[in-house]
Polysaccharide deacetylase family protein
Amino acid sequence: MRKTLKTRRLAAWALALVTIAAGTEGVAAAAERETSPALTEADRAVYERLVRGERVYPDRAYAAPDEPTVYLSFDDGPSKWTPQVLDILREEGVKATFFMLGSQAEAYPDYVRMVAEEGHAIGNHTYNHRYGELYPEYESFRDQVERTSGILAGILGEAPRLVRAPGGSSGHFTPFHFYLLEQAGYAVFDWNVDSGDALRRNARAADIVRGATPAKLPAAPHVLLHDGGNREQTVAALPEIIRYYKDKGYRFGKLDASVEPVQFRYSPGTPPGRPMTEKRFGNLLAEARRIAAERGIGGDSPAVPGEGSREEGPLRLTAGPSGRSATLEAGEYELTGGRFWVSPARLAEVLGADARPAEAPGGAVTVRAGKRVIRIDPALRSVLLIDLSGYTKRLTLAEMKTVGGELRVPLRTAAEWFGSGVARYDLAPERHVELMPAGSFAPSLAGWRAPLWSGPERNRPSEGAPSSSGRPADGRLEKLLWGPAAIVLAASAAVGLSAHAAAAYRAR
Ligand SMILES: [Zn+2]
């Protein structure tokens, strides 16, 4: 019995590979027919979703804080009030985030430096905050963001990645705003607790405290305060606000791009400005990716080989009890933005998974890990997963890049694709990541339990974000990519490896 099942599994595995290959050829042929120089097939699929008013979220893992965390933010500064806010934060020993206006940073560059030197985070709040100039369309917003990036980079040495829309994104941003800013390497943060200090002209300190400390707190409060404008009452309210969160046991976090953002729900009534044609989108997308590449951000830009790992030691990977290990020399991996990037084939090897390397430099890599087949395709920036018991999932816009012809993916994320995970890691005295055995990481399995035709559930940021519809997407690309999965399911059934049989096999 065991032998028969094993044979069937092998047959299903072989069929999966054949059908994936067939499906990919179909995609390639279709791309050849329709690809314009401006947009790849994957970018066009994104365009079609954005133009329908759908948000498209990045495949990004966020660091979950391990204790209750509140994020205080101060907008519209710096101003003459900023030093007083800094004094209070220093006395209380807490950190915060300052979303600065370019015009104010020009006027108070010393305060910009002071905020950075005291260890707070700095974000971009556009140049002048004037809605009439910011929100006619994406380009007008981008112009002010880039202008402010230049000003802050001139003072700080680098441009902040955080962006907050004056007045918030709701009613101002279309899905194109979110997507293009993300592609340019920015992280957009709204808030979920408004202190009300700027809502009324003469808000009193007591009202501000009340606003900043609502009875029903979100899981991670992102509190909106201001240090620009007349902020006497905010300064008066601040110690009590901090006391409130301290008494409740909160840690005070500062924002960075690894914090799961709060983003307001996109309101379909947002004035769209000029129609976003495919050509205009293509140009803006290319520009956004150029901006990210210039700053060394993002998975689209080919990284300089060895970037971030020059003069750093090798990285040792080990897999739990199996004792398998591999050592990646400097240059064979990189440590960028706090994350390790590795070849999926090397990672698969350590996990004891079978990897089929790319046929050509920079091509797709196919990995079999347990009952999963995973195809990582840099041309489409997609990851197709097929569970041989009949479940599939496709991740679009997955983070990956090609370095010297070798595909690289973020280690932690890829380990989860393979049903593993990071057990622990060290940076010193040596760089070492210990992986869980493939298939041992139960929580990630839950993600694959999407029925075949329900469409992929998106990994999304947070509260306030609209939930994905779960409907099958109707683009042709979508059908092409889902096609092979259907064939695998049929083929699996044909060789007797139906979901039922697979469940029986698992039960042994
Ligand atoms: Zn503001």
Remarks:
- The first strand starts at residue 69 and ends at 77.
- The chain is about 40% helix and 20% strand.
- Confidence is low (pLDDT under 50) at residues 21-36, 299-311, 441-508.
- Residues 2-45+302-507 form one domain.
